[in-house]
Write a structure and sequence with these properties.
6 strands, 6 helices, about 35% helix, 3-stranded antiparallel β-sheet, 2 domains, single chain, alpha+beta, globular
Length: about 200
């Protein structure tokens, strides 16, 4: 199993499932259109190495096929992926077991959860370089505007970490983010989501 994104990209390239694109491409609509066509055709992952106005490449469509999702999860067969989905479904919406066999199945899933303790890295690579305040320049990132109707450049599925001001409990939510300035973005979230609740409590504190 790949340890990080770089290693996964290397693995799928070795398997002939990555196409490098050196031609200059525009993050405003063009990259999204190319990627969508390749995705619909069941094509390879794409690595755009020459993005207009950006100093970083764009890797896209990495998980565009079931096969590549299995590789990322260190699974050999799609059935393993389906089994994992069923287990996660049991945890999201647990139902009281009606049979002994159902109780046994639920017990196995709970046992797997107990075993799956997250690791902790006190010196993660993502924190080796820290920018704050005016040091932050989000415009250097190759953010895309995927559709003509989008108001600006966005991060479609950004991981947003918030913290409850009273309890200190952290929440990681997947939200759509839109670039507003060099160091600010707006977050699109529903009022019932964890991040929105944390924001309300912080505003009232």
């Amino acid at each position: 199993m790949a340890r990080d994104l770089r290693e996964f990209i290397k693995q799928i390239e070795q398997r002939g499932q990555l196409r490098r694109i050196n031609t200059l491409v525009d993050p405003d609509l063009e990259i999204a259109e190319i990627s969508n066509r390749v995705l619909q055709a069941g094509g390879p992952a794409l690595l755009f190495e020459n993005v207009k106005g950006a100093s970083h490449p764009v890797a896209i469509n990495l998980l565009g096929t079931v096969e590549r999702v299995c590789w990322a999860m260190n699974m050999q067969h799609p059935q393993e992926l389906e089994t994992l989905g069923e287990k996660l479904g049991m945890l999201q919406q647990p139902k009281p077991p009606k049979k002994i066999s159902e109780a046994v199945d639920l017990g196995k899933v709970l046992f797997d959860v107990v075993k799956a303790k997250p690791g902790r890295d006190f010196f993660p690579a993502c924190q080796q370089v820290v920018w704050q305040g005016e040091e932050v320049d989000l415009t250097k990132l190759p953010l895309l505007r995927p559709y003509p109707g989008d108001a600006g450049k966005i991060i479609t599925l950004g991981l947003v970490i918030t913290k409850d001001v009273e309890t200190g409990t952290a929440n990681v939510g997947v939200y759509r983010l839109q670039l507003q300035s060099q160091n600010t973005m707006t977050v699109h979230w529903l009022s019932v989501r964890g991040g929105a609740r944390h924001l309300r409590k912080a505003a009232e504190a």
